[in-house]
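Newbie here. three chains, one complex. Structure please?
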Amino acid sequence: MIALDLLARHIGIAYEGASLPIVALNTLKEAQGNELSFIVDAKHLQALKTTKAGAVIVTDAFIDAVPSGCEILRVASNPYLYMAKASYYFSKTPYESRRGAAKVDESSDIGENVFIAEGVRIAKACTVMPGCYIGADVTIGEGTVLHPNVSIYRDCYIGSGCIIHANTTIGCDGFGFAHTQTGEHVKIYQNGNVIIEDDVEIGSNCAIDRAVFGSTQIKKGAKLDNLIQVAHNCVIGEYSLLAAQVGLSGSSELGRNVVMGGQSATAGHLSIAPFTTLAARTGVTKNIEQSGKTFAGFPFMDHKQWLKLQGKLGRLLKS
Amino acid sequence: MIALDLLARHIGIAYEGASLPIVALNTLKEAQGNELSFIVDAKHLQALKTTKAGAVIVTDAFIDAVPSGCEILRVASNPYLYMAKASYYFSKTPYESRRGAAKVDESSDIGENVFIAEGVRIAKACTVMPGCYIGADVTIGEGTVLHPNVSIYRDCYIGSGCIIHANTTIGCDGFGFAHTQTGEHVKIYQNGNVIIEDDVEIGSNCAIDRAVFGSTQIKKGAKLDNLIQVAHNCVIGEYSLLAAQVGLSGSSELGRNVVMGGQSATAGHLSIAPFTTLAARTGVTKNIEQSGKTFAGFPFMDHKQWLKLQGKLGRLLKS
Amino acid sequence: MIALDLLARHIGIAYEGASLPIVALNTLKEAQGNELSFIVDAKHLQALKTTKAGAVIVTDAFIDAVPSGCEILRVASNPYLYMAKASYYFSKTPYESRRGAAKVDESSDIGENVFIAEGVRIAKACTVMPGCYIGADVTIGEGTVLHPNVSIYRDCYIGSGCIIHANTTIGCDGFGFAHTQTGEHVKIYQNGNVIIEDDVEIGSNCAIDRAVFGSTQIKKGAKLDNLIQVAHNCVIGEYSLLAAQVGLSGSSELGRNVVMGGQSATAGHLSIAPFTTLAARTGVTKNIEQSGKTFAGFPFMDHKQWLKLQGKLGRLLKS
């Protein structure tokens, strides 16, 4: 928690309004009265008009649309940069060296050289193999198996019956930066977490980023192969299957039973309908709205069209 | 070992036949009299007719081809799903917290925070750096170097003179699941191992899957760069060279001295002739039978053809 | 240090000249009087003529161009193979089990199960989380944060204010081999290091190779996402941004503020001008000399051209 006037001073915004206590940053849509939000793009104008945020960082372009009762942090330009600066004040320390007060069920088998931070809860019948790191306030459900050298950052939630293979990282920072006029990058602290539901299996050497706000989610029964990148704020639907070396950009939303072939990938901020199949190396560049279809290629297209295109290229080659 | 009638009951198959002791699952071709096999596809019909398996899971479509003396587990549909369920009963516990009775040569240098499970054998003059995990019954040959935080799952075999770089995982589970009618995935326990022959070097943050049955193999003198995916049951030939971020799908077989450029990949269940060269990003989609050739592209083609195609596309662009 | 005549004998070259003390291998251009160099290709002929190397491995093709005062190790063929053999004699042991005589500022928080080798220097206010490995003579600047299970090989340098995420490997061996006539690979020991400047952030499960000679460099303020491959002797310019699963081949040089999209990659030995933007999956195959441009595709082309090509292909498909 930080007082709004103090926060404004820290991040270099002149502010004469009320000294509201602020507990977090959030999107216009999700923010509550004790949270700070911001607007960068006119596409969020409607969300601004109806936001419940306690305060908002705005330029003059949007200032008239701020609802009454919402405090205004007015900036000349680049509100995203001020949001980045503010994010630091809501971040928790990434590491707490205390081991005190974790709650590990005695039926669970905790290997040697495992670090379990304060506030961790590990349910019955889990196996945590040597070299794992379990950050502060992580919850791990019944019967889950963590293979060696898995690293789980603070505040993440792993369900029951999950298997996480060796050297995988869960809850690392999403790749988010604001940029100064001189081309430097200011870190947007990633203050969300990762929620992995029951019966999920994740392969070796994967990287699952925590959300900037809210949660990156991997839903019940999804299965991920090795060396997969899941960026911040992705949602992977129930029973989805992701083959090795898949890369999901930020805020990709996969419906249930989506199948992604090896090395396939998504651009950010898009959604993929349930029961979609993506061939190996597919690069999804916009929303897939109709469920049950198969795609291939980059830019992606219907799989049959892609096969036809290869035939056409074969003929072009012979011409 | 489990009695066939008991196993049948566990996986939900009505069975009135003999109470045969079964020690493993295996393919029709490889199975012995104390092993259980299965048939999914007509392409394995010949293998069924000559199988030495003690018992087989079949639907009515193939039941007449089961050789005499081979017990029948008859299912209405989806034999693969029953095989998946059965695989659990042949799996070993992935982790044994006991350290007793490993055999480590006193000339080897074992770092701090290394976990060495029961049954491990480490030969002369090895270096095992801090944070490594060596699972039960792993064998490591003379002079091999394991860099920090390498994780080797149980039952794997590493030859002499190998170098494995940091944070690499060897012997993790292959990505194998059977699927229920309602779209859930049932794990096929990966009961094989990984065999790495002498003088192999593997880069950092690689994932080498164990076989579902039998062994994933990396043969003598092969060299792998960083961030490489080797799926279950692959065979990498002697002196092959795999550049960073290569991805091999399941049961890919590379002959000797195959060279794969960065980010190149294979589809599963195919073989690549010796002395084949694959340019960066090549995607191999079928067998390569003639040795000594160079390929590129996805779908892949002769490298010269690929260059010609790029020329044609350049002209198309200008047209 | 090894005497040149002794080294020649070890690697199988007849040499009757002076017994010069040699301390390292180096390129013709960089080598000093106490270093050994080599020439493989006529494109380095000019560098040979002006080299300050104390000695050089050459075939008869180049022997006349060796400057006076530079000792000659004459070989019939494959000087690169002899260089590889020689590299072994300049390599340091990758691991020293001694912990003595590190210099860790008492304000830094060093987690459990961290290995800190001899000669390490860790400045003020650092956080080194559990399971990290810090090799001999590594330097870490003020306020840097190492997340769990990061492995840093010996002799590397990390600046101030850096963040390195979990399971990342820094300073692992570059992928360098010479080849015998019978197709075996002889390791070129990677005797350089990695230098990471201030305010760099590197994601999870990345692999940053040490240089063969000299240093792999990541310059001030650069930000790398997860699962990235940086090969030996790369130089990443100030404030560059590399998205997940990017792969840089050996000796790629990026200017400042280069932006690389997900899964994009470079071929080796090329340079990319400052302020270049590469779309996701771009494959850079030659130098980019003009700054501030945007590229896409593989082989890469101007981004607008690439979009136009996709339009042409769309029309081809409909034709």
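Moderator note: The CA atoms of residues 249 and 268 of chain C lie 5 Å apart. The first helix of chain C runs from residue 4 to 11. Thread marked as resolved.
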